[in-house]
Amino acid sequence: MRNILSILIFSPVVLSLPVLFMGRNEKLIRFYSLIASSAVFLVSLIMLSMFDASDPDFQLVERYQWISDFNVFYLIGVDGISLLLVLLTTFIFPVTILGVWDSVTERVKEFYFLLLLLEGGLIGVFLSLDLVLFYVFWEVILIPMYFIIGFWGGKNKYYANLKFFLYTMFGSLLMLVGIIWLSSQSLALTGKFTSDFTELKKIAAFVPLNIQLWLFIFFGLSFMIKVPMFPFHTWLPDAHTEAPTAGSIILAAVLLKMGTYGLMRFSMELFPLMYLNYAWLIALLGVIGIIYGALVCIAQKDIKKLVAYSSVSHMGFILLGIAALTVESLQGSLIQMVNHGLSTGALFMFVGFLYERRHTREIADYGGILKTMPVYGSLFLVICLSSIGLPGLNGFIGEFMILIGSFGSSLLNNHTYTIVATSGVVLSAVYLLWMYQRVMLGPIDKEENRNIADLNLREITASSLLIIFIVWIGVYPNTFLSKSEASVKKLKDNIESYRSYGTGRQ
After folding, report:
1. For residue 329, what are the contacts with CB-CB under 8 A and spacing of at least 6?
2. pLDDT tens string 107-153
3. Alpha-carbon span 143 to 147, nearest angstrom
4. How far is the C-alpha of 469 from the C-alpha of 113, rounded, in Å?
5. DSSP 19
6. How many whole angstroms separate alpha carbon 3 and alpha carbon 5?
7. What is the pLDDT of residues 458-473, one digit of tens each?
8. CA torsion, points 157, 160, 166, 167, in degrees to nearest 10?
9. What phi and psi, each to the nearest 5 degrees, are found at residue 108?
């Protein structure tokens, strides 16, 4: 099993191919896709069993010459930081397929083919240790998601898709320029052109500061657009609102984490001096995103758009934790990536359940449906509370660790960031509980809401799988935090070592 990571990346790609030859047997296609994605999850559990949590370095590394003329390698590996995101990815896909089982009725074969292709690309992003390979997987993801929104999206899908594509392509091109420029610096400093991340981070302090600044901007913008960080967030609500339910779940649960993972993995370690100088700016934009996203949520009339803007707010917490550079805040940011994937993915799934029954997302079209959908209402409440950050559920763990870590951060050296960010927790309770009250409680004013079918066994199973981990992380987070602790501590110590240069903002 020394090639377990390659098996993990390419198994969903290979397993996607038979879907194209299954004709129009939609039931067979759905069952096969569920089994295929579940098999990938089992492979990720095998990888987990082989992982040594006490070792902070990259493990299960595979290295093969790819483009010899440019010294580019097929180089992949996993550490505690990427491990949790790979597990989140492989878990979300089968749950999503189960949850949206028959919501797609046209071009079913193509839909599930693209979904499995997307899974392979996402796993590749989190395991790549060569920047060119990382860029290839980063771009590969754009193709299936573009078609998923474009073919199965809502009435404004073309506008949303174009916006999503242009934003992402702009950021990707900046990153490509940054990769070429950084590799050229390696040639100038070491006499060897390389895009190997493990080699490039060794020369981080020797790149001229003016070039470091531009490289930090190029990489940073690419990742910030994907997060999305305020003010680069405007593509997200449109893409979320117009995407089919499965697209929204995957987009929220995994795709947004590519941005925060990129910041933590590449921006911090490749340009530590610039990171130390501008961590305050990342924190500031993160806090603005927290408050701005929450305030916009309060004004929303569309449930799906409300959940979409809540991602802007919740991702702001992750950015604050990354900027604070304490073990607590970095651990909090990492577990919050997982938490957001579970909670917001579940919120989009539940919005999809409701839309399939009533074909409207307007909050004003509902009211009192807890009476007709008691199981739906009960499970929906748990997920809303997890997104708010109720103690005992997963959201509390991530936000608490981020706030504690950022409050004691010597790098930010300003409690204002944490104090203002805390108000985002209160605002999240305002918009989510208010939305729940208007949709689920009160009298049934509309005749259409009197006979809505409650969740069936398949939908209960899919949502319960998410809720199990929502409660598990909330009650005993050390199961997951222990896997990343060693790698996070090493990352923090590596960046702290550059503060002796005197470039950090004090």
Report:
1. 320, 321, 322, 401, 402, 404, 405, 406, 409
2. 889 999 999 999 999 999 999 999 999 999 999 999 999 999 988 88
3. 7
4. 27
5. G
6. 6
7. 999 999 999 999 999 9
8. -150
9. -60, -45
